[in-house]
Design brief:
Oligomer: single chain
CATH architecture: Beta Barrel
Number of domains: 1
Number of strands: 6
Helix content: under 10%
Number of helices: 0
CATH class: Mainly Beta
Largest sheet: 6 strands, antiparallel, barrel
Radius of gyration: 17 Å
Order of helices and strands: EEEEEE
Strand content: over 45%
Length: 108
Amino acid sequence: MRAGLLRELLVFKSPVETQSPTGAVKKEYKEVFKCRACRKKMSLIADRDGVSAMEQFIGHTLVFQVRNYPAIKENLHVTYNGNEYNLKMVNPQINDNSLLLTLEKIDT
């Protein structure tokens, strides 16, 4: 993987339970890690009529390639371009020591 391709910045957040002064416990996401990534293009799969059944869902899913860091685990939240995403899948690429991350947008 070439370092010049890593143009995007990803911020990884982990859930932490905090207690307010009134005693209420709530789950917040704290930043644990930042790294550079390369965004992979997803290709649309169309049937013989040229219609893609995934058109409405493909905008909510992103795929990134990053270097292999042990801090990256599934079920973290990721901030990219001001939007929150849930890390759905971490796919290790053995040939170049990188990870393919599949992110799904969180509806807010």
